């Protein structure tokens, strides 16, 4: 009986020590891009479970700042709510760091610096294992190591595919960055266009009112039977 219990304990220890870390180390990379509205006077926070030693990449940009400046405060905290990154009044930024412990990490976009202006923020969150690509490549080699020539050709193919994957990921990030810049420029141009139109309308109405007032005053000066003529005569 004691031997059976001991065997079960050893099996569970094997699962905890070997299988679970392998599962986390081979977890699929997490890549998510979101566009959010940061309301004035509020802080928008998001939580993401991350395992220890995983690589965290956060890239954000304010694409629209309302009628004020396009900047925002940003914070990144670990599961113990220790602040890892803290920035104030930034329009864009990018950070890479390694998770020091497993748990729920918290990232916040703080728009309490604005009283009336709502900000539009786009950010990219990427979480990958530190040795994900290398470990996946090793496992594939072990599965298909039946012939030396095949393994050699397979290694070359895997290397090329890995390079293509990296280039595609970089191209996608560049495209996302370009779209964010275009959205920001478009919002700024539309805001300036609306401001110019409103100011032009105000000036047009003021010119009409001033012109009508001048005509009315001139007519009242030469119209001897009117009440305003008597008013001008007092001066």
3D structure, described in words:
With 235 residues, this protein is of the alpha+beta class. The chain has a domain at 28-131: GOLD domain (Jelly Rolls, Sandwich), CATH 2.60.120.680. The chain is built from 4 helices and 8 strands; from the N terminus they run H-E-E-E-E-E-E-E-E-H-H-H. The protein has a 4-stranded antiparallel β-sheet. A 4-stranded antiparallel β-sheet has the order 2-7-4-5, with no helix packed on it. The radius of gyration is 33 Å and the shape is elongated. The relative contact order is 0.13. Residues 1-26 have low confidence and may be disordered.
Radius of gyration: 33 Å
Number of DSSP strand runs: 8
Average predicted local confidence, pLDDT: 78
Helical fraction: 40-55%
Membrane topology: Single-pass membrane protein; Single-pass type I membrane protein
GO cellular component, one term: endomembrane system
Keywords: Developmental protein, Membrane, Signal, Transmembrane, Transmembrane helix
Pfam family, one: EMP24_GP25L
